[in-house]
Inverse folding.
């Protein structure tokens, strides 16, 4: 399986060296994300609409929060993460029968070109020093005219308390590489050849900018 060679002691994903941070926090990740439940519910509704009847790939699925809530709307869904322990957690509990959880590295995908109608990558691009590599892989595996759904925490212009929370998360291992504002994030996607067809910032622990583009 692509990506497995990066597991265990430490590994590079799109230029970011993770020392088991995601493996370590996999068992408590869902508890951490509960505070943003309202924003995620809004995001699920938007995603269900655009994946209806489609073949879908999700990158950086973590414990499968998004996949488990939206996969029933899709034709088929591959939900992937580079962390083996995250995928292990994702496989627990109920999940639609059309969803499969597998280990994959977003910057070195094993899938053939032109495979998926929709690719989802949520809250991952901002922690990658070289997110362009992931976007290149996404473009390769998307069918012509396919849709990228890329909700991402946008850390720019935050109030002081949220700036401190962001710094604390960096200390414990979850460093923000790109403190984009909403407009800066949109500009980054456009510079990399994506045309934004929908955008809305949702209220969460950090501003969550939901973006659809082709």
């Amino acid at each position: 399986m692509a990506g497995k060679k990066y597991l265990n002691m430490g590994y590079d994903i799109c230029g970011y060296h993770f020392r088991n941070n995601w493996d370590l926090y996999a068992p408590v990740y869902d508890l951490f994300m509960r505070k943003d439940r309202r924003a995620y519910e809004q995001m699920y509704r938007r995603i269900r609409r655009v994946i209806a009847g489609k073949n879908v790939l999700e990158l950086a699925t973590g414990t499968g929060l998004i996949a488990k809530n939206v996969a029933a709307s899709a034709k088929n869904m591959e939900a992937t993460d580079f962390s083996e322990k995250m995928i292990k957690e994702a496989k627990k509990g109920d999940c639609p029968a059309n969803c499969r959880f597998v280990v994959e590295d977003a910057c070195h995908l094993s899938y053939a070109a032109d495979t998926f109608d929709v690719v989802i990558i949520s809250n991952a691009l901002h922690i990658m020093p070289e997110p362009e590599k992931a976007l290149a892989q996404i473009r390769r595996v998307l069918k012509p005219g396919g849709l990228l759904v890329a909700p991402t925490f946008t850390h720019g212009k935050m109030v002081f308390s949220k700036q401190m929370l962001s710094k604390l998360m960096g200390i414990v291992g979850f460093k923000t590489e790109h403190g984009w504002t909403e407009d800066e994030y949109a500009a980054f996607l456009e510079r990399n050849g994506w045309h934004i067809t929908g955008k809305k910032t949702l209220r969460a622990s950090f501003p969550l900018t939901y973006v659809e583009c082709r």
The chain has one domain: 4-213. The first strand starts at residue 11 and ends at 13. Residues 1-11, 15-19, 158-173 have pLDDT under 50 and may be disordered. The radius of gyration is 16 Å.
